[in-house]
């Protein structure tokens, strides 16, 4: 794949608006509280029982709050709270296993949070042994068993314990190495902690390391953030996620502790991302899309080259063929055309589990129209192109007739140099790759009715 990008500041400013990240389509904004649990059960009953699975476990606890965070979390110093939650997770596993059986291989497993390493080694072992009991975990070269790690909450011993349990990918939260920025967001994290865990991961033969960065945090400048980027390049992670900080204090209470006057200007944020993108490409990283970068020999880059990259609630993935079972508060499962989300609060989650019920509080059954548009958006966001003939075979439609209004709307983007469009295909051009969310939004039939700002800005 041609990995060239052209940063056009005037175009980016014109198109820089809030928009979905399309980890699903329809997005979670469309989920409804009157969702019928039987729809999920029917989707499970109708699936091929040998179809591979992806498991997700949400561990919501954090020892301290990071002021920028918009995740579903429980901030507590009481480590004892992990044990009863773990028991609930295991009960939920048992209920899901009763529905799915143990025939399907689990090719992907992910622990997110919160802070998954809030669990101690024994609790992590208890969780994974329960997963082994209720599902058919597969430990081979094709399996991806990953975990998000706060470097303040782990050491070499932790990494050894995780490796023994079968984890082979890690994601480390860095955000920024600048001490002034770290202080402003209440996340003091010396670079030595990150270096130690990377050294441990390589010594223990973890096959992939991802680092998360955030630009737009208080007291960041172009020069200070580029210092962080240079240090990250020296660490040579396999993957990088470089996220735009969305300051939404009306939605996320911890963000109210951030003084908006300390935030970099929109113009400076754009320069941060421009210089970061250029520097990472110069260092040999491939732009996967949507703020994600990877080394050319990483599975994500190779999957994109082969046209089999996928996107779901865990971001870009090579396991789009798996049904997703998500467990824990707020987590979202997808089985076939059905989405089901758990209660986000501990009280309702606990009550449902103790009543012997799956803790679903909202969801959605996608229509045929939704599935068609989801396929188009996914191929755009993963491949940066659409082949109309291929889509017609996949979807049994006449693409030009079905999407005539959208193709007409895209002509403005074609005139702006974001894409190339003819009767056979759509190709996103180097000027348009950073604005792929905008192009996908044209195919989103729900956005026109959206009145509240629920999404981050595209850059």
UniProtKB/TrEMBL annotation:
Residues 47-283 form the Radical SAM core domain. Its cofactor is [4Fe-4S] cluster. Keywords: 4Fe-4S, Cytoplasm, Iron, Iron-sulfur, Metal-binding, Oxidoreductase, Porphyrin biosynthesis, S-adenosyl-L-methionine. It is found in: Cytoplasm. The keyword Cell membrane does not apply. The keyword S-adenosyl-L-methionine applies. Belongs to the anaerobic coproporphyrinogen-III oxidase family. Monomer. This is Coproporphyrinogen-III oxidase. It comes from Parendozoicomonas callyspongiae. The lineage of its organism: Bacteria, Pseudomonadati, Pseudomonadota, Gammaproteobacteria, Oceanospirillales. The gene is hemN.
């Amino acid at each position: 794949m041609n990995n060239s990008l052209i940063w056009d500041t005037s175009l980016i400013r014109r198109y820089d608006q809030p928009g979905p990240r399309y980890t699903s389509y329809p997005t979670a904004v469309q989920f409804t509280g009157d969702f019928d649990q039987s729809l999920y059960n029917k989707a499970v009953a109708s699936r091929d029982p040998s179809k591979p699975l992806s498991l997700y476990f949400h561990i919501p606890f954090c020892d301290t709050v990071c002021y920028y965070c918009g995740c579903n979390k429980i901030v507590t110093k009481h480590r004892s709270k992990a044990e009863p939650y773990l028991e609930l997770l295991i009960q939920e596993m048992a209920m899901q296993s009763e529905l799915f059986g143990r025939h399907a291989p689990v090719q992907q497993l992910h622990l997110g949070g919160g802070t998954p390493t809030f669990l101690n080694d024994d609790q992590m072992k208890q969780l994974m042994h329960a997963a082994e009991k209720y599902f058919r975990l597969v430990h081979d070269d094709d399996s991806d068993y990953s975990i998000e790690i706060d470097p303040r909450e782990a050491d070499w011993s932790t990494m050894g314990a995780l490796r023994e349990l079968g984890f082979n990918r890690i994601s480390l939260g860095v955000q920024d190495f600048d001490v002034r920025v770290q202080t402003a967001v209440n996340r003091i994290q010396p670079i030595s902690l990150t270096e130690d865990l990377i050294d441990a991961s390589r010594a223990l033969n973890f096959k992939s390391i991802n680092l998360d960065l955030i630009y737009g945090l208080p007291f960041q400048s172009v020069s200070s953030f580029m210092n962080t980027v240079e240090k990250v390049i020296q660490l040579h992670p396999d993957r990088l996620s470089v996220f735009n900080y969305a300051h939404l204090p009306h939605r996320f209470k911890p963000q109210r502790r951030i003084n908006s006057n300390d935030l970099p200007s929109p113009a400076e944020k754009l320069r941060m991302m421009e210089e970061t993108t250029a520097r990472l490409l110069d260092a040999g990283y491939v732009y996967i899309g949507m703020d994600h970068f990877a080394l050319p020999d990483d599975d994500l880059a190779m999957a994109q080259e082969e046209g089999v990259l996928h996107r779901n609630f865990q971001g870009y993935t090579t396991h789009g063929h798996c049904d997703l079972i998500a467990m824990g508060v707020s987590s979202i499962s997808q089985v076939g055309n059905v989405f089901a989300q758990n209660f986000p609060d501990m009280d309702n989650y606990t009550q449902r589990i103790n009543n012997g019920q799956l803790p679903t509080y909202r969801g959605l059954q996608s229509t045929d129209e939704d599935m068609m548009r989801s396929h188009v958006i996914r191929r755009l966001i993963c491949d940066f192109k659409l082949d109309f003939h291929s889509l017609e075979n996949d979807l049994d439609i006449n693409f030009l007739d079905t999407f005539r209004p959208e193709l007409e709307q895209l002509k403005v983007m074609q005139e702006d140099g974001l894409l190339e469009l003819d009767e056979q295909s759509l190709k996103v051009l180097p000027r348009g790759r950073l604005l792929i969310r905008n192009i996908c939004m044209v195919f989103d039939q729900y956005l026109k009715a959206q009145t509240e700002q629920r999404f981050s800005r595209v850059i």
